[in-house]
Write a structure and sequence with these properties.
About 85% of the residues lie in helices and about 0% in strands. By secondary structure, it is mostly helical. Helix 8 runs antiparallel to helix 15.
Amino acid sequence: MSIFVRKETSFRFLWCGQIFANLGDILYVVCLIKLIFDATGSVTYMSLVPFFNTISALISGLLAPLIINKFKLKSILSYSQTGKTVLLLLLFFGGATIGEERLVLIYILICLISFLDGWASPARNALIPNLVDESKLVKTNSLLSISDQIVQLIAWPIGSILLVLAGSINILWLAFLLFLLSTVFMWLISDGSKQLPYGNELHMDVLKEGWAIIWKSKQLRIISLMNILETFANGVWIAAILFVYVSEALNKGESWWGFINGSFFGGMLFGGLLIYRFSSLIERNLGKTIFWSTFILIVLTFLFGTTSIPWFALVVSFLFGLPQMARDIAETTIIQKSAREQLLAKVYSARGTLIFAAFGFSSLVMGWITEKFGVRVTFLVATMFFLVSFIVAFINKSALFVEIEKKRV
C-alpha cells in the first residue's frame, strides 16, 4: 500500500510540475515576442523565436540518448527544469534592457532553454509508466492531455491580457515563478526505480538504440510512418495558413481565426474527457482507435478545406479535435508499453526528432503551396497525406491491431 501511495503522490508531483512548466513556457514566449517586437519592430526577428525553439529541440532530441544513458530519468527531469529556471532568470535580466545589440544573447538563451526541454520531454513521458499501474495508462494519458489542452486554452488569452495590464517584465517574473514551482515539484518525484543508467556503450550505439527499437517492432514502425505522414498533413494548422484560410475561404476577419483555434482546442479537451470516461474501452482497442481516427481525420480535413460556410468550419474544427486526441493517446499508450525506463526515453527522443523534422519541413512546404496554389489546394494535399496514412494502416492492420505484451523490453 505504501508503494502505491508513493507512486500516486509522485505522479501528482509530476502532473503539477508539468502544468506549471507549460504555463511558464507559454507566458515566457508571449513576453519574448512582445519584447523583441518593441525593441526591433521587426516581424522577422519575432518569427525567429519559434524557429530557434524548433531547431534547438530537434538537435536536443538527437543527442538526448547520450544523457539518458548516463543519468536516471528523474534526475534528467529535475536538473533540466532547474537549468531552464536559471536560464529564464538570466533571460529576465537580459530582457529588462533588451535592444538590438543584445538580441544574439537573448536568442542563445532561448536556444538553451529549448535544448534542455528536449531532454526533459522524453524523460517525462518515459517516467509515467513507472508512476502508474499499466492498466491505468490510457486514463493517465488522457488526464495529462486534458491538462495540456486546458493550459493551451487559458494561457494564451490570459497571457495576452496580462501583458497589456501588467507589462512584459512583470509577466516574465511570473513565468520565472511558475518555472521555480515546477522545479520544486520535479525534485519531489520519487519513481522507485532501481535500474541504473547504462553508461558503457559506445556513443553511436547509444544514439541508435531508440531508433533500433522502433525499427525492430513492426507496430512501432507503422505508427512512426503514420506519424510522419500525419505531421506533414498537420502543417495546414499552423497560424499563417489558418489566417489565410479564414480570410480567403471563409471571407471572415481576424476574430474568426481565434474562433477556429479555440474550437479546435475545445474539441481536443472534450475528446480527452470522453477518453478518460471510456478509458477501458480504448485500452482494449488501441490499434483500432488509431485506425478509425485516421479515417475520420481524412473526412474532416476534406470537409474543412472545401467549405465556405463559417459556422460549419467551426463545427468541423471542433470535431477534428476528437479523433486527433483519441489517436494521440492510443499512440502514446502503445509506445509506453513498448520499452522500459531509459530505453523508452530513447524511443521518445527518436520519435520526437522525427516529428520535429517532419513538422519543420511541412510548415515550409505547406506555406509554399498556399502561396503558389491557394489555401484550398493546401487542405487537399493534407487530405491526401491522411489518406496515405490510412492506406498504410489498412495494409498493416494485423500488426497495428496486435496486443502489446505486458512485459516491456
